[in-house]
Specification:
The protein is built from 14 helices and no strands. By secondary structure, it is mainly alpha-helical. It has one domain: MetI-like (MetI-like fold, Orthogonal Bundle). It is flat and about 70 Å long.
Length: about 300
């Protein structure tokens, strides 16, 4: 009888399994296949077209000797750290204020969420206009502060922070909405118990509410991290990597070498390093997250 059950289990939900075949094939061919193709050709000297003339790790040696690549890595690290910290902190604080049942809540929520509806190209162009010498700087000078200077887009050491400001302006509203949804799911009895016990509000948030909102924070972290890794269009719209190479980012480096400068091998090497970095962070986190759940369930 046991042997008869296995075929039945294999053919259970057969229609659903057949319907999933195109998606599985897409994942295998497009994602896994293209990833392997990228890794293989990153070890070649391919230029405009892919060619299987292997050169070992020459592309990677050249990559890490490139000042443009090292600047892009430094910039993405600065952008990533500041975006993660400030978007989560500011988004959570805004959600806390919105959760106080304030008047015109829907209006404020729409205002905060509106930037997220814009594309990064539009956001970049808007902030390029705001931060250039004819934007805020001119307005303040016209008010009588003639010595006021705001060189965020022209100073090599400050330009990445201008990009951070634009990114936070666009993305913080989404973080606020996610946090607000998490706060609204907290049982009111928890707040009543905290007030009865005389626990200060800030301690309730830090030691009770935030731990309960862990899934929301994880989801927010994944969304922000995705935006950080693929940062490209905001930089192109605001600075195009300038002044010089001071606002270069990895995604732009990959695009320029693969399509603008016809150096396929170098672009693929850079994209492979990006993929490896993501996997180094993602795999331990996934093992800790899902392995811990299985351990607790067991």
């Amino acid at each position: 009888m046991a042997g008869d059950r296995k075929p039945l289990g294999l053919f259970r939900n057969l229609n659903a399994k057949i319907a999933a075949l195109p998606m599985i094939a897409t994942v295998l061919v497009v994602f896994i296949g293209c990833t392997l193709w990228t890794v293989v050709y990153s070890f070649t000297s391919s230029r405009s077209l892919p060619m299987l003339n292997f050169v070992g790790i020459d592309q990677y040696t050249r990559l890490f000797k490139s000042s443009r690549w090292m600047v892009s890595v430094e910039n993405i690290a600065i952008y990533g750290c500041l975006s993660l910290v400030f978007s989560i902190v500011v988004g959570f604080i805004l959600a806390v204020f919105m959760d106080q049942k304030i008047r015109f809540e829907n209006t404020f929520r729409t205002i905060f969420l509106y930037p997220f509806a814009l594309s990064f190209i539009v956001t970049g162009l808007v902030w390029q206009w705001i931060l250039n010498p004819l934007g805020i700087e001119k307005v303040v000078r016209d008010l009588g502060f003639e010595s006021f200077n705001l060189p965020l887009l022209t100073d090599r050491s400050l330009v990445i922070y201008a990009i951070v400001i634009a990114g936070l302006w666009q993305g913080t509203g989404l973080v606020m909405a996610l946090m607000l949804a998490g706060l609204r799911n907290i049982d009111e009895e928890i707040w009543k118990a905290a007030r009865v016990d005389g626990i200060p509000t800030w301690k309730t948030y830090v030691f009770v509410i935030i731990p309960m909102m862990r899934p929301v924070f994880v989801t927010t972290l994944v969304l922000i991290a995705t935006g950080i890794v693929k940062l490209y269009d905001l930089v192109v719209a605001m600075t195009n990597g300038g002044p010089g190479i001071s606002s270069e980012v990895p995604a732009k480096y990959v695009y320029d070498f693969m399509f603008a400068w016809a150096n396929l091998g170098q672009g693929l090497a850079a994209s492979t390093v990006m993929l490896t970095t993501v996997l180094i962070i993602l795999i331990p986190w996934a093992m800790l997250e899902f392995g811990g759940r299985k351990g607790r369930a067991g």
